[in-house]
Write a structure and sequence with these properties.
It is a single chain. The protein has an 8-stranded parallel β-barrel, surrounded by 7 helices. The relative contact order is 0.16. It is of the alpha/beta class. About 50% of the residues lie in helices and about 20% in strands. The chain is built from 10 helices and 8 strands. The chain has one domain (about 5-209): Aldolase class I (TIM Barrel). Helix 3 (about 65-75) runs parallel beside helix 4 and helix 5 packs across helix 7. Bound molecules: ligand LJD2ZHX5. The site of the ligand O=C([C@H](O)CO)[C@H](O)[C@H](O)COP(=O)(O)O has 19 residues, from helix 2, helix 6, strand 8 and helix 9. This is 3-hexulose-6-phosphate synthase. Belongs to the HPS/KGPDC family. HPS subfamily.
Length: about 210
């Protein structure tokens, strides 16, 4: 059974909270996507956590430097998780992990742009990350020939706690879940659906099957 995370790549916090309200019954983790964080800042995180105190809130900072400082900012605003780039140095991940331990929260390392995602995932877990996101971002997904299968194969081999993000939808979620992921991340498949609540419900059913 995999947890389900909704990645909200909207730009307005009121729209994001309205979406989260529809899908929250089927979701374990509410992610404020990087564009939303850049648009609404720490205030957006505070508003989301205030609206959903019983849900895990993930701030998709994609931190590249000053790991401890940025993690303290995110956790101070109410986030339960922050993302840190796997492409950055070990000291940045270690700094964020230090802040996470002080707050009783978690660091998720995002492998976007990393060549050897499996190796970096194993290193990141050794540094104290709670889980690692095997991630093909929106631009990589738009490249010719992209297939989520590469992430599914990597999750099967990783041997550490991972999530998959980058094209998780109703067609791929069963294979994603079978790969043994801790968390399946779905963005456009939920916020772009005609009926986001129903999309989240169907994804959750398949993630739990
Ligand atoms: O993290 C993401 C991206 O970098 C923009 O913030 C997306 O939320 C993530 O890639 C989810 O992708 P889809 O499920 O394919 O929308």
């Amino acid at each position: 059974m995999a947890k389900l995370q909704v990645a909200i790549d909207l730009l307005n916090i009121d729209d994001a909270i309205a979406l989260a309200t529809k899908v929250a019954p089927y979701i374990d983790i509410i992610e404020l996507g990087t564009p939303l964080i850049k648009s609404e800042g720490l205030t957006g995180i505070r508003k989301m956590k205030d609206a959903f105190p019983d849900k895990l809130v993930l701030a998709d900072f994609k931190t590249a430097d000053a790991g401890e400082l940025e993690a303290n900012m995110a956790f101070g605003a109410g986030a339960d998780y922050i993302t840190v780039l796997g492409a950055t140095g070990d000291s940045t991940i270690a700094g964020a992990v230090k802040a996470a331990k002080e707050h009783g929260k978690g660091v998720v390392v995002d492998t976007i742009g990393v060549k050897d995602r499996v190796k970096r995932a194993q290193e990141a877990i050794a540094l104290g990350a709670e889980f690692v996101e095997l991630h093909a971002g929106l631009d990589e997904q738009a490249e010719d020939g992209y297939s989520i299968q590469v992430l599914i194969d990597e999750a099967t081999r990783a041997g550490v706690a991972v999530s998959i993000a980058g094209g998780v939808n109703l067609s791929s979620i069963t294979a994603v879940k079978k790969s043994g992921v801790t968390v399946a991340v779905a963005g456009a498949a939920i916020y772009g659906a005609k009926d986001p609540a129903n999309a989240a419900k169907e994804l959750q059913e398949l993630a739990m099957a």
